[in-house]
Specification:
five-stranded mixed β-sheet; elongated; 5 helices; about 25% helix; Alpha-Beta Plaits; about 180 residues; two-stranded antiparallel ribbon; alpha+beta
């Protein structure tokens, strides 16, 4: 995604503020990058311009330079000191088949005070309590709607929450997960 946006910003002819050093890059970031395999209807991109450009002109220029299946829906002008601070992310996970007792599984998970998750990494396992990040969790047919807290202390991934619902690994792997919103604080 970052390469896609970098190319679109360059093709739009915007006066990008560049980093310093041997290999200057546009000053840009994705404040809440998504995990591999997760679709998104809610991407945030921050970038800095070296000169003033009318925000409407920036929006129109970007809309003309992104692939047809990407919609640039809004642009907010902020001071460089006002970086985005995501506090929650909303997801919908469409399960590949019906799970008869899905609501009961959700109730059991939400009743727990802790929900340990272990992330296996080459540098060592990372342990976290997923329950403290789950803000809302509900089922709507095959759709699992999930809101998780995020921030400097971390977050939980939607596939980890699906595993905590005791869904088998094939069901989790085949779930169609889509990020639908990012809430800023």
């Amino acid at each position: 995604m970052i390469r896609l946006w970098e190319r679109a910003l360059r093709r739009a002819g915007l006066p990008l503020r560049m980093s310093q050093g041997f290999n200057p890059r546009p000053k840009m970031s994705l404040p809440e990058p998504r995990s591999v395999g997760i679709a998104s209807e809610a991407e945030l991109l921050e970038f800095e311009l070296a000169d003033w450009v009318n925000p409407d002109a920036v929006l129109q220029a970007l809309r003309g330079e992104v692939p047809a299946d990407i919609a640039v829906t809004a642009l907010d002008l902020v001071r460089p000191s006002d970086k985005a601070h995501p506090v929650a992310v909303e997801y919908v996970a469409r399960l590949p088949e019906d799970v008869a007792d899905l609501e009961q599984r959700i109730d059991r998970l939400l009743a727990r005070t802790e929900a340990p998750v272990v992330r296996h990494r080459p540098t060592g396992d990372k342990h976290l309590d997923a329950r403290r990040f789950i803000e809302r969790l509900e089922a709507d047919g095959r759709n699992v709607r999930l809101v998780v807290r995020t921030g400097p202390n971390g977050t939980v991934r939607p596939d980890e929450v699906l595993r905590l619902l005791d869904l088998d690994s094939e069901t989790v792997a085949r779930a169609d997960i889509n990020r639908t919103a990012v809430r800023l604080g």
